[in-house]
Amino acid sequence: MINPHLITIDKKSNVPLFGLDFIGVLDRGTNILEVKPITICNLHCKYCFVSAGDYERNFSIERDYLVEWIKKAIELKNCDDIEIHLAAYGEVLLYNELNELISDLHKIPKIKTISMQSNGLLLNKKKIDELEKAGLDRLNISLNSMDENECADYCGVKKYNLNHLLEVFDLVLQSKIELLIAPVWFKGINDEGVLDVVQYVKNQEKNGYSWPKLRMGIQNYLTYRTGRKIKKARMRDFAYFYKLLNNLEKEYKIKLKLGPKDFEIRKTIAISPPVRLDDKRNVEIIMKGRWKNEYIAIFEKNWAVKVLCKEKIPLKKQIMVKFIKSSLRGNLLTAIPTR
Ligand code: SF4
Hints:
The chain is of the alpha/beta class and 339 residues long. The chain has helices at residues 63-77, 98-106, 125-134, 148-154, 162-174, 191-206, 238-252, and strands at residues 7-9, 24-27, 32-36, 59-61, 82-86, 111-118, 138-141, 178-181, 184-185, 214-216, 219-220, 280-288, 294-299, 303-308, 318-326, 333-337. 25% of the residues lie in helices and 23% in strands.
């Protein structure tokens, strides 16, 4: 059963699952399909680039409908080594049909890997067993420091149970699921914290867990216009960031830079939207989006587009819009009303 406080996206809703960034199926022209089934989160991270927890309306996709669209995406991509990466704009463990979804995906022959991004705090032995049984292959879990109070501060919560998360890591390591620990490095803020996490992974190596069963991938802190930001942290340019990682790799004798080859990512046919930047099209407004000024509209049957408008637009209305964001890779569409 889906949480009643969430707006359900299902067949009846008529919302296509290609084109939106916050929900649905996202293709960047590789053999990875990013799947976003839900928009709620148990944390309120100060650095959350998607501002989860602040939305006026939250959404969840009905499982059968989501599986139908994933199958449609796989067919369009004509690819037989797909990785499904569950990467919600929120916490995927809050999706009520998660085990069933993974189990359904596991039965699709062209899907070779199922991975998932999570903050890990809602996991326990039972849930890990269920995910393993359903067919989950890899878990990416964020951890930005080995200090509980710092973690609570970064994650915008009063209490952060670090010991529980470390127990979760042990349980995942004992299961068949691979573990990727992924701290975000906020320059000048959690420099020590990141090194402590590296040391933790080094200690786990001594316990016999190493690549690819246990990986570490440090992420560069990036800020986005619509995301939350850690006030004093600055973005670091990628050349400098990789130089720092190179130095750490040498010092700690550990792999820290992860690239497409490490996940067997390769280019494939892209699912391309039938519009380009500045194109004008008639779309039908279906429902309100996450924010006050955001609407979800449909065009050409398979495509949803985010329409940004400060004025109220009646639902079911056909309006002319101009596409202000449309990329071949990433198939994310944004438009504004025009004449
Ligand atoms: S960063 Fe992740 S865990 Fe934190 S609030 Fe955003 S979606 Fe939730």
